[in-house]
């Protein structure tokens, strides 16, 4: 008994000890930010062939390693109905076939995976050799060694996407599930096949006593007389035959059952803990996403395996023990396959929090789109959807929506979706709101009223309907948060995306907070002062200022007019030939102003003094509306940090153009200081045909126009030395 317990403990302890010896894999947890989740979901996903290979490799490894380990430590010699192992020992014929099939699957999957470039030669050879050696040694105690190492490999591969506690949980699940499957397979091979109970067959008459054939055995009467004359034997000595003499009972079936049920309990516990640590954040995603359903299957299927073991231990289930164990074994392998799927599925987006922007992805035909919801308060909320081809406001002509390529993907714009996109609340209390375009910004925009508390948004795009969980809490939106649904909403959303992309692991999700249009920052005021001083020093004598009614724009317009008047410049209200145009409005009015000025310049000289834009107007939707402009900036868009921001925000929200407002928020999270002295930068189109960006380059110098460039089809370069902002 003591030896059996030691062997049972070694079944689980040995591979777990080998996993723990890895050491470095357990160093430090990895927390995935909302932007990283969105980028992963929108990036290139594993194809069906890759998924099938991973599932086959891990399921085969679990079965091969589990059988070798469990049979090596707890198996017995089975001369009846068994086959001789390749290197000695007797193994039940079915178990031997199963082990070799599993080894073959592992060898084939490992080799194909190596040919795709995913695994090194050394790793492939080690995996294949271990699987084949485990099958060859089956029937001997030595099979436990390659079996344990195979489970270590399974643990490392299943937990390859995690570190820290999440990796430890993956490793525990892998080892426990492998032991569970191995014990079930060994039990299925050793259990008695279901069949009729001993006695006369149906339709055959019973043989009367004393009328049996002449076989040399005494008749019933003679047996009765002999029995009466025989010495008395205690009843307990013959009432129950010895366990070893019962052909339907495995000598170590009790140990196998205890190992299997204990391993199943450990696997279920590790699976539940993994869902808590790194699983979906909401019950909506737990039951409504592929990732959540796979995680639930990885927990539920080992429970069914344990239920099969419990049924086989009952008196009624002993006659069907083999069938029950076989069904349980297939179910256990399916559980490992579900766990293997998790690494190939994108983790659902973060759960909603009142007052904080929500960044998630939704389905759109064969593609996925990014969606941003803010300020996440009861009442009007801004909903932004990535993609192109949205109709102008006020039109519902069913214009198709196109998902744009990732930031590093160059000029590919993806397939055109068959229908327009819309959003509605659930429960539906109002008609669906169509997504429409906004001047100066990319993507689709809608404003919807959300009820207080938890609810869902329904987004329809590309013929696919997706639900997004939201939670607005009970506090009403502040006037500052309400600016998100106003005309400056696109710039506010760009700033929020800069916050989300700049968020570092472990940081709380940034609050909706203030919009850049709410106040004129000292840095922007200094940049405008330097701009006015420079243009008046170069002889500009008339200035036209374009502003809107936002607090920032009103303050900026007052500053520009005051400084220009002090420098002797004349203020004009309408476009003319000699004036300089200074735009300090928001994105949409600025885009309209530049478009009108460019159209007028084709007919008559207009604003020959130059076009100057406020720092916050550096975004593709604005600067591309004119042939050339000058922008005062406290950073260089050609620097690697600025390009990095452009790439990150484009990956998290495809089609999002980099902007000054977004970069300032991103730089604050990243610890990147802005220049104290601004410089003037010229923004103009550059036609360089037959050139294409290298992967990861976002300078916009290519034929198709990179949506993540600061100036698609153009460039932004310094045209002055650093200026005095005072």
From TrEMBL:
Signal peptide range: none
Transmembrane domains' residue ranges: 51-74, 95-113, 119-138, 145-165, 171-191, 255-277, 289-315, 327-347
Domain of life: Bacteria
Keywords: Membrane, Transmembrane, Transmembrane helix
Keyword Membrane among UniProt keywords: yes
Annotated stretches, region: Disordered: 192-223
Biased composition (Low complexity): 192-221
Name under which the protein is recorded: Uncharacterized protein
Species the sequence originates in: Pseudonocardia halophobica
Taxon lineage: Bacteria, Bacillati, Actinomycetota, Actinomycetes, Pseudonocardiales
